[in-house]
Amino acid sequence: MRVSSPVPHKKARIEIIPLIDIMFFLLASFMMVSLSQVHMKGIKVNLPTGSSGETQSKRDYISVSVDKDGHYFFDKNEMTEADMQARLIQVHQSDPEAKVFVRGDRDTVHGNIVHLLDMLRSAGFYKISFEIKSEALKGVPGPGT
Q: Following DSSP, what letter does each residue of 34-92 receive, concatenated?
């Protein structure tokens, strides 16, 4: 003999609509984070701070750097002065409107930066930006720290 329960028996259901909502939220979040990431092309240097700097878009750019010992770098590759000059001329011939960002270590000699600027100008680059660490972000770890 079979006795039925007074509690109505319902089949379990898995609702997938909330799962889809969560997956779309995670997808959108990860897309926004990945778009806001900046890919560092230059070497890690101790950037000087400044209060009047402004953020610029860093897409399709050239990064030239000088470390505290006066060594020159194109993106992350160390180069001699002659190699740097030849590479800058080659890049200017292929893309005369390329953005150039100069990264100079805070402890480097002023003459090293001036010499790098001379190399950039002799290669044909006249629109040059300097990378600095903003005082507004002081104490906040960023890509340059």
A: HHH-----SPP--PPEESS------SSEEEEEE-TT--EEETTEEE-HHHHHHHHHHHH
